[in-house]
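Teaching assistant here, posting this on the class forum so everyone can see the example we discussed in section. The complex has two components, and the goal was to see what a joint structure prediction looks like when all of them are supplied at once.
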Amino acid sequence: MIEARLALRHPGFALDVDLVLPGRGITAVCGASGAGKTTLLRVVAGLEKRADGVLRIDGEAWQDSAAGVFVPPHRRALGMVFQDAALFPHLSVRDNLAFGQRRMRGAGRAPETAPVIELLGIGHLLERRPEKLSGGEQQRVAIARALLTGPRLLLMDEPLAALDERRKAELLPWLDRLHDELEIPLLYVSHSLPEVARLADHLVVLDGGRTLATGPLGEVLPRLDLPLSRDEDAFVVIDASVGEYDGAYALARLDFAGGALWATSAPRAPGSRVRVRIQARDVSLAHAPQQSSIMNSVATRIVDFKPQEPGRILARLDAGGTPLLARLTRKSAELLGVAPGMAIYAQIKSVALLD
Amino acid sequence: MSPSGVESIEFGAIRLTLELAGLTTVLLLLLGTPLAWWLARTRSALKGPVGAVVALPLVLPPSVLGFYLLVAMGPHGPLGKLTQALGLGTLPFTFPGLVVASVLYSMPFVVQPLQNAFSAIPERLLEASATLRAGPLDTFFNVAVPLARPGFLTATVLGFAHTVGEFGVVLMIGGNIPDKTRVVSVQIYDHVEALEYAQAHWLAGGMLLFSFLVLLALYTLNPGGVRRP
């Protein structure tokens, strides 16, 4: 578990957060640029010496300003991946990987090199110089370099931001893999909602240096009071498991707490876990399930709604415990008589499988 | 003067010049490296004044520097009082005095290339080093110094060559004592004064060749200046 009560004042900017974050999984830190995402990461890493407050990792204090405790960055068991990878240009990939590993000074939990190299698929790059690598390869080496120090916490500062779309698509599967295998918490700074939807378990939303929201992804995304909900692409993420696969139509039935969804998919084994993204604009409402080209109709109850300009509303629905978002015009909402507590069917036009 | 006597004077001057330049360069690398690191990294208000003082020998006539050094190292100057208190006597007209003067006079030629090389290292690499468990000294020696290697090459060559090439300060501080303070540049001056043009040609031509080769080596080995990652 990570406890962070941290403050940092720069001229024209102040970070002031109070967070308790889970000790496993990926916590995405998101928010507009200037919200303090990178600053928060730097404060956690100890790179901002003027930060003030308390930071504990599993009870161990890395910073406790009141008690005069400030563990310098090189004594914090963390790994950091910078936006531009920050590989040492004077060292080969192999020596870059060894740099942190050699400096652990037998501080226990030394990770094996081979599995990390295998995990990130960089075995064929070891003798190369960083400048001979693509952006995606550089980031994979940077991630491996960070992991090989045996960190108790991994920090990533927009590792995809400097990459073009193709390189992003190339790196994402490796991050998925990391997500599945990593046993330590990962703080992942990103302003890209698709990345967050795909990778994060937990979400911290920053705005102007303050915490706007923090919680599991499934709880934060459907909130109507956050800037996220104003995004044209506002969405929710549902964790589902494959109930059956119909090879004739290439359709998978995805079971979740509040029902089931059909989605076209490559063959999937029944029982496998899958993460599903449903965008608010792909959900329409109806009083009764209708015969239409839309296959997915889920019984829900309206929890709340919020008007959005121009002439639209965003409704939060509850499908047997699973929250959904629906965006509709204000006129449709009036015709349907949308009100909190009302039972209604959500017709879901499109379901994206996120891996 | 017999030919062998001429040769021994010439070789004495050459040996002395190389000793002076070598020792000065070593001292300058030892003193200049931390100074250049500080100048490259600090946000202190002293950065400007210190940088200006280091650069002064670039613009001052050597006679001005020599004059103040002579005063400071003399029996009544602060440096002179210190050396006397330590039982070292006074420095003017001695080889150690020449070394002190050369260190000051060649300082910018060592400090500035190093400072430029250190400034060109992205802060991010030093931070990455810290997050990889390297302490500040470890980071300095294993990240900053290797990345600044072209700067060290430039600093060493320029520091050495500039010390070999100095004249005014050497003349004022060292005087002209054979085998103690008479370096090549002063020796050439002596030859010219004595109308010994043949000998002057010999030494001056040697200096010209030496300087050209040194700079040629510098520009060939180090074409891009500081390597930027």
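For the discussion questions: The mean pLDDT of chain A is 90. Chain A has two domains: 2-220, 235-353. Think about how each of these relates to the inputs above.
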